[in-house]
From TrEMBL:
Residues 2-198 form the DNA methylase N-4/N-6 domain. Gene3D superfamilies: Vaccinia Virus protein VP39. GO terms for molecular function: DNA binding; N-methyltransferase activity; site-specific DNA-methyltransferase (adenine-specific) activity; site-specific DNA-methyltransferase (cytosine-N4-specific) activity. It comes from Halobaculum saliterrae. This is Type II methyltransferase.
Amino acid sequence: MLTDPPYNLSSNFEADFPSRSSISHDFGEWDDNQITPNDWVPEIARILNDNGTLITFYNNRRTHELLAALTQAGLEFRQKAYWHKTNPVPQLYGVKWQEAVEEIIIATVNEGKGHGFQDQRGQHHNVIHSSIQNRGPNTDHPTQKPEEVISTLIKWWTKPEDLVVDPFAGSGTVCVVAQQLGRQYLGIEQKHEYVETARTRLNQRSLQQDW
């Protein structure tokens, strides 16, 4: 299970600049406190198999809510990883540090063997470096994650032919990357426009799959 749920960060804040892209914190109504970890984590725990793994992005300031929901659902918190954004959003006044890191939470159904990560031996940093997906009128989704980040996670935690499920599929990036890497995939998305975008992206890879 690899997903990027709503962070509940949306606000009415906007700022325009003459020499760079404008900044907006309005990601859409789907990110306006309509769903919390307690709404979706128990359902994921219910359907994961005995060796199932949950990998999820989440808001750094509200990670405690996610961790509490994981514990309550009986999932085993394993580790945090970090996406280092090499082109983070500029600070408005240039006073505070830029928010250049996003947390990735990894949890499993059990504490034992059988998880894909155990095939990767050696010493590896828990940081993935990648730029933010460009945002603008031609962007498929306002919080779309880079394929490079998703690819690293899928390669590390799964094997070819494994099933990768994204219950907050958005524009289908997880499914697109899973397709590229020879994994089975299932995407769930309630907004019709994003479903159509995901179908288009998948069809462009010259593989027909049911969605």
